[in-house]
Amino acid sequence: MIWWDDASCFCCIDLSTSCTPQRCVCSHTSVSERAQPMDRSHHHDWHDFVRRTASKLCPAVGVIGAGSYGTALAIHCARAGHPTVIWCRSKEVADEINTQHTNSRRLPGHSCPTQLSATTDLEGMVRTSTLLLLAVPSAHIAATAQRCVEHLRLDAVLVCCAKGITTDTMQTMEELLLEVVPRPQHCQLAYLSGPSFAAEVAAGMPTGLTIAAREERVAKQVQWWLSAANLRCYRTTD
Fold it and tell me: Model's pTM, two decimal places?
């Protein structure tokens, strides 16, 4: 079944809308026509549905980190129709994603869309990305962000997908990034949290995420880009 609740229709990304079980304000179509049970065994039909219902296409998504969660987010973005590139530290992993469309080391059992491409050129990917998902372990956030800051587009949104605090300085991810990212771009920072699991995101299972940003417009933009039929984003400025 499509994930759907009483607050709004499954395609809503803004809970202030007044979609009802009878009518979807977002698309001005009958919800009953859209929220029909789908046979998940027809993977191509399901992913085509997700792609067609993506809220809005981002010009270019760059995922920094080819671990399990970074790969899952890249799969989701590519399936939703966004031009997506994932950065890998290892050339072998990048080659596997580009040729075999898998990341067997970090996310076995899940295939990557053919339109997802991988690269080992971090700086080149950053220069061309409008949305950057920073999905490296928390211990490497500062060093990886430092490599990116000189190449960030002025309009780029940088979303930290790591959790936790540093073991040496006890800093949060936000405190780290505020030290590394130039002050004029602090307003372009956002933070993604679950609860979610990489395998569930990659499989297209119903998932909820929270997007936090000090600037509500930034949180709303990320929410707008990442939301799809199977993945619902909630935004906060907390």
Answer: 0.78
What's the angle, vertex CA 84, arms to CA 34 and CA 117, rounded to 5? 125
Backbone φ and ψ for 57, nearest 5 degrees, come out as: -80, 135
DSSP character string of 169-234: T--BHHHHHHHHS-GGGGGGEEEEE-S--HHHHHHT--EEEEEE-SSHHHHHHHHHHH-BTTEEEE
pLDDT above 80 (res 7): no
Please check whether residue 103 is in contact with residue 123, taking contact to mean a CB–CB distance below 8 angstroms.
Answer: no
The residue type found at 40 is R
pLDDT above 90: residue 8: no
Going from the C-alpha of 121 to that of each of 72, 91, 162, 163, 228, the distances in angstroms are 20, 10, 21, 25, 29
pLDDT digits (tens, 9 = 90+) for 51-93: 544 446 899 999 999 999 999 999 999 999 999 999 999 999 9
10 Å CB burial of residue 185 (0-12, 13-18, 19+) is: middle
DSSP 72: H
Residue pointed to by tokens 């395609």: 11
Residue whose tokens read 């933009």 = 221
Counting Cβ atoms within 10 Å, is residue 28 exposed (0-12), middle (13-18) or buried (19+)? exposed
Distances (CA, A) of 120 to 123, 131, 210: 9, 18, 29
